[in-house]
Structures are given as C-alpha cells and as structure tokens.
Amino acid sequence: MANDAAKKLAGEHAATYVEDGMMVGLGTGSTAFFAIQALGERVANGLNIQGVATSKDTEVLAQKLHIPLLALEDVPYLDMALDGADEVDEQGQLIKGGGGALLREKLVASAAKKFIVIVDASKEVKQLGAFPLPVEIVPFAWEKTAQKIADLDCHPVQRQRAGKPFITDNGNYIVDCHCEKIEHPAELHQQLKLLTGVVETGLFIDMASVCVTSDGQTTRVRDFA
Ligand SMILES: O=C[C@H](O)[C@H](O)[C@H](O)COP(=O)(O)O
C-alpha cells in the first residue's frame, strides 16, 4: 500500500507517547495497527502497560503481541488512547468509522485523558465530508432511521459486506453518509444524535488532543488540547 510507510512512521511516533504503567486505549485500523505493533515490541522489551481494545480485531492483535488487556468498564479512566482517523480538519475535528469501529472507539477515546490521532498526510483536510460519514444505527426498522438521516440531506447508504449488511461489533448497522461537505460538524453530529435509531456518529468533535501526521518521510505533530 502506497501510504503504509507514512502510517508506519506516524504510528511508531505515536507509540513513543506511551509511558510505563499507563492504561492505553488501542485503536482500530491499518494506521493504529502500526502503533499497536510498536507498543507490542516495547512490551516485549519490558514496557509495563495495560490496553483496552476498541474492536474485536484489535483485541486479537493485542493478544498476539502479548499486550495485557482490560475491559473498559473495569478501569476508572485511561491515560491515553491512540487511534487512526479517516479525515482530520484544521481544528482537529475528525471523521472516524471507516472500519466500522466508531462506537467503541468513541467510548474508549472519551475515557482517555489524552487522545492521540494518527494519520498519513492524505487524511488531512480543510473541510470534513469528502470521506462518507459513518453513522451506526440499530438494525430494527433501519430504513426508517436512514430516511430521517436522508431528510437531513446526508445521503445515507447502507454499508454492505459480501452482499449482506455490515454488522458492527455491537450488532448494529452502519450507513455511510455522502455529505461531500460538512460545513458545521458539531451541529450535524447533534442533529444526527437526536434521531431515534442512531446509536453514534463518526464525527469526533473536540476529542483529539494531538494529531501525528506523516508523509512517509517526516512527521508533524499538531496539538489541539
Ligand atoms: O472504524 C475504524 C476507525 O475509525 C479507523 O481508525 C479509521 O477508519 C482509519 O482507519 P485506517 O487507519 O485503516 O485508514
């Protein structure tokens, strides 16, 4: 993959923020993968951390790397969470959920004192929305919920996998909203959240503390805290 070098560099840099004794949220996706792999190497060399996984896939990866895992409900807070994103704007607002893990990712990031976002340079945008916004909805009468989302001019399309509805780790559906331009991300998030049937949106508003971006050669750190 063309962006793998950038994802690796950003992921490895993000992993350096983790210190001994921390409880760390472990993100989901191809960029978070590199951060988790770097943490696994540090754990093999004696780093003492405990992780909370944001998806079943990440749980499997962390177990393979012998990173001790906790359940989110068993910890009062997390010191830090590391995760990728699908888009990051200049204010640090995010679209996440391209991999379908947005609900657990948001729960984990909300519990963290510091949320480190890791992206390759192609994810940096002036305005959110070119990437279709994932919205997690309950399967019951999902078309009704999708219609309410469509009424907000969000152009939802049910996510499919192998010709069947994509099912999240929480047993829900995802609709990907082809907004093209999201002028007011916080307002749109609020409007969507008010719809019965919507579980969570992929808009992560005012959550990122730091964004680590790489183009494969250099790494840039932006502080949003
Ligand atoms: O649900 C998936 C997550 O929000 C990912 O963090 C996001 O889609 C970015 O994934 P990737 O690093 O694979 O582009």
UniProtKB/TrEMBL annotation:
Reaction equations catalysed: aldehydo-D-ribose 5-phosphate = D-ribulose 5-phosphate
UniProt-annotated catalytic positions: E105
Residue spans crossing the bilayer: none
Listed EC numbers: 5.3.1.6
Pathway given in the UniProt record: Carbohydrate degradation; pentose phosphate pathway; D-ribose 5-phosphate from D-ribulose 5-phosphate (non-oxidative stage): step 1/1
A Pfam cross-reference name: Rib_5-P_isom_A
Database matches in InterPro entries: NagB/RpiA_transferase-like, Ribose5P_isomerase_typA_subgr, Ribose5P_isomerase_type_A
Catalytic EC class: isomerase
Binding site for substrate: T28, G29, S30, T31, D83, G84, A85, D86, K96, G97, G98, G99, K123
Keywords, in A-Z order: Isomerase
Example GO molecular function: ribose-5-phosphate isomerase activity
Family, per entry: Belongs to the ribose 5-phosphate isomerase family.
Protein function: Catalyzes the reversible conversion of ribose-5-phosphate to ribulose 5-phosphate.
Subunit structure: Homodimer.
Protein name per Swiss-Prot or TrEMBL: Ribose-5-phosphate isomerase A
Organism of this sequence: Alicyclobacillus fodiniaquatilis
Gene name for this UniProt entry: rpiA
